[in-house]
């Protein structure tokens, strides 16, 4: 049973694909092997968004090398405390710090280009991020039924 199902009674969470560009000690799957299977799923108990980061390094002779990373968007800070029943206790506060969509971090002085994408919704950080707002979907449905 996923952590999202257990926590659903008190809060909700989303699920995102998770993979790393290189091997890590925690055994996270590699993005080069990404196939969208269950082994790439992660419950985002401390996040309301997913992310996907693609970094491209320009090499000599016009060649490039690219890496990808996927996961839950980092939206918490370590050390948040709140006074509860007269005592300070550690709490997890989720901060809404990202806008949905993709941004390019391009600096002509650097040989790398990084594209950071943030999205809301289950498994939205798949291999092809397409962010469509609910307003667009609603508008398409209305137009469909009117015509």
From TrEMBL:
Gene Ontology BP terms: regulation of synaptic transmission, cholinergic; sleep
Keywords, in A-Z order:
Glycoprotein, Signal
Q: Does the keyword Signal apply?
A: yes
Check the record and name the InterPro entries matching this protein: QVR-like
- Quote the Pfam families the UniProt record gives: QVR
Q: Does the keyword Glycoprotein apply?
A: yes
Q: What is this protein called?
A: Protein sleepless
Q: Which organism is it from?
A: Euphydryas editha
Q: What is the lineage of its organism?
A: Eukaryota, Metazoa, Ecdysozoa, Arthropoda, Hexapoda
